[in-house]
Amino acid sequence: QVQLVESGGGLVQAGGSLRLSCAASGTIFSISVMYWYRQAPGKQRELVASITSGGRTNYADSVKGRFTISRDNGKNTVYLLMNSLKPEDTAVYYCHAISYWGQGTQVTVSS
After folding, report:
1. CA distance 6 to 21
2. 94 - beta bridge partners?
3. Which one of 35, 65, 70, 77 has the fewest beta carbons within 10 angstroms of its own beta carbon?
4. What percent of the chain has pLDDT over 90?
């Protein structure tokens, strides 16, 4: 059974920073592309960032220059460092790999 467990969400003021973590179980981690998605109330889930097993990254235009995705294959963990947060970044953030999703972690940015 593969599990993805996110942590690190919370309430932060605009301009602040948070670092999300996603711990993955099983042997899929080292060979998988890992993704961070988010879903704001009333909106569709959207891709925020991705990282290949080799470390190649990709970002949504809305977060480029502010968010950084990284991974530690030894710890089976992927991270999302979020800087210069804006109220529009408020959403539930999900970790995703292959067909698996985490439970999500809430990020709330106050103005």
Report:
1. 5
2. 37
3. 65
4. 82
DSSP 30-50: GGS-EEEEEE-TTS--EEEEE
pLDDT of residue 57: 98
Structure tokens at 59: 């970002």
Summarised one tens digit per residue, pLDDT across range 26-79 is 766 677 899 999 999 999 999 999 999 899 999 999 999 999 999 998 898 999
Query: Are 35 and 96 in contact, with CB atoms under 8 Å apart?
Result: yes
User: Which of 64, 62, 94, 91 lies closest to 78, judged by CA?
Assistant: 94
Tallying the residues shown for the chain, one arrives at 111
Say whether 29 sits in a helix, a strand or coil.
Answer: helix
pLDDT at site 32: 83
N- to C-terminal Cα separation, the chain: 40
